[in-house]
């Protein structure tokens, strides 16, 4: 018997099931690592950098690290928290301690006052497995959101529309309408000739 024949007899193959286990382990490790670093970079901003008194530094981190789209001449106050696919337009002001979670589009010259909560997912009330649903939120140009307002998943705030302080938007608000209450309802109309440009850059805010 030649050496070649001996080596051929001794040659063993790794069972497919073991290869599959290794593959699943590596896949889980990779996904876990991705989720870890995504959560970590969010943590760095939402629990540390958000309180750094420089709008320029905060926006730089949001754009370069968290991939939040932020337009020109926009001011984001200290204390705001971000998570998800968020697009912010030009000349927009986001007040202190607001929460933005999910797929959110905020357009130009929008004023969102302190402690507003905007989210795009929730649980299905009657689902036996308590599953979630996801619906984007859109806030059009010149909209004005009052302090501590809440915007529910799937809602569109129309151009120039107003959502009063402490109100909850559960449905779309038409252009230039003023809504208030819980749930928010129309209480009036806003001047449709507005044409201002927000330019707000306070120090240490």
Q: What is the structure about, briefly put?
A:
This protein is α/β, with parallel strands linked by helices. It has helices at 3-10, 16-47, 55-64, and strands spanning 69-70, 75-76, 81-83, 86-88, 93-94, 99-101, 104-106, 111-112, 117-119, 121-123, 132-134, 137-139, 144-145, 150-151, 156-157, 162-163, 168-169, 177-180, 185-189. The relative contact order is 0.10.
How does this model look, in words?
The protein has 205 residues and is α/β, with parallel strands linked by helices. The chain is built from 3 helices and 19 strands. The N and C termini lie far apart (84 Å). Strand 10 and strand 11 form a beta hairpin. 24% of the residues lie in helices and 25% in strands. The chain has helices at residues 3-10, 16-47, 55-64; strands at residues 69-70, 75-76, 81-83, 86-88, 93-94, 99-101, 104-106, 111-112, 117-119, 121-123, 132-134, 137-139, 144-145, 150-151, 156-157, 162-163, 168-169, 177-180, 185-189. Strands 2-5-8-13-16-18-19 form a 7-stranded mixed beta sheet. Strands 1-4-7-12-15 form a 5-stranded parallel beta sheet, with helices on one face.
């Amino acid at each position: 018997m030649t050496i070649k024949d001996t080596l051929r007899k001794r040659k063993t193959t790794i069972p497919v099931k073991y290869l599959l286990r290794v593959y699943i382990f590596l896949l889980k490790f990779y996904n876990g690592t991705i989720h870890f670093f995504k959560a970590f970079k969010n943590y760095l901003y939402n629990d540390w950098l958000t309180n750094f008194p420089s709008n320029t530094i905060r926006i730089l981190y949001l754009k370069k690290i968290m991939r939040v789209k932020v337009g020109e001449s926009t001011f984001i106050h200290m204390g705001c928290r971000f998570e998800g696919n968020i697009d912010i337009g030009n000349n927009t002001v986001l007040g202190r301690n607001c929460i933005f979670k999910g797929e959110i589009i905020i357009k130009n010259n929008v004023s969102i006052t302190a402690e507003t909560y905007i989210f795009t997912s929730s649980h299905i009330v009657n689902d036996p497995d308590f599953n979630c649903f996801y619906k984007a939120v859109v806030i059009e140009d010149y909209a004005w959101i009052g302090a501590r307002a809440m915007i529910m998943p799937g809602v569109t705030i129309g151009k120039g529309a107003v959502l009063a302080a402490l109100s909850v938007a559960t449905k779309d608000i038409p252009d230039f309408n003023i809504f208030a209450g819980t749930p928010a309802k129309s209480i009036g109309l806003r001047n449709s000739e507005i044409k201002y440009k927000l330019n707000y850059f306070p120090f240490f805010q």
